[in-house]
Design brief:
About 45% of the residues lie in helices and about 30% in strands. It is built from 4 helices and 5 strands, in the order ααβαββββα. The radius of gyration is 26 Å and the shape is elongated.
Amino acid sequence: MKKLFMILPLTLILCFMVGCQDKAAMSELEAMKVQAEVEEQNALLIRQFMEKMDENAGLNDELLGLLADDFEWHMGGIPEPLNKEASEQFVAMLYSGFPDFNHTLEDMIAKGDKVAARCVARGTHEGEFQGIPPTGNNIEYGSLELWKIEDGKISRLWIQSDMLGLMQQLGMELKPKEGEK
C-alpha cells in the first residue's frame, strides 16, 4: 500500500511534466506554422507581383499600391536606390524598349520577411532602350533578386542582373580602354 502512495505522486508528476512539454512543443509548433504561413504569403505576393507586372507591361496603380511609401530598389551598377516614382519610370522605359518583356521565375525561397528569387528575363528589342535604337533582337538574361516585405507591402528590392550580357545581345561591344600616349 505504501508503494502505491509513492508511485501515484510520481506518476502524477511525470504526467504533469510530459503535459507541460507537450504544451511547449505545441506552442513552438504553432509559432513555426504561423511563420511558414507568413513566408508562403510573402512568396505568393512576389510571384503575383511579377506576373501582373508582365501582364500589364509595367506598374499600374494596383501594383504601385503593393509598394511601401518608402520603397527602395537597389540595382547593381546604379549607386543610388530608386524610389517608388523612379522605379515606375524605369519599368516604363524597360517595357517601352521590350514590349513583350517577361520574367520566368526559376527558383524562389522565402525566409522571414525576405523572398529570394532567381529569374530569367526575355523580350524583343522593339523600342529604344537606354539610347540604343531598336534592333529586333531577342534578349534573355538572368537575375538574382532579394525582396523585403514589411506589413504586407514590398519595402526593398535588391537586383543583380546580367546587364553586360543584355548589352552584348543588343549589339554593344566591350573594348579595352586605349592607353594614354
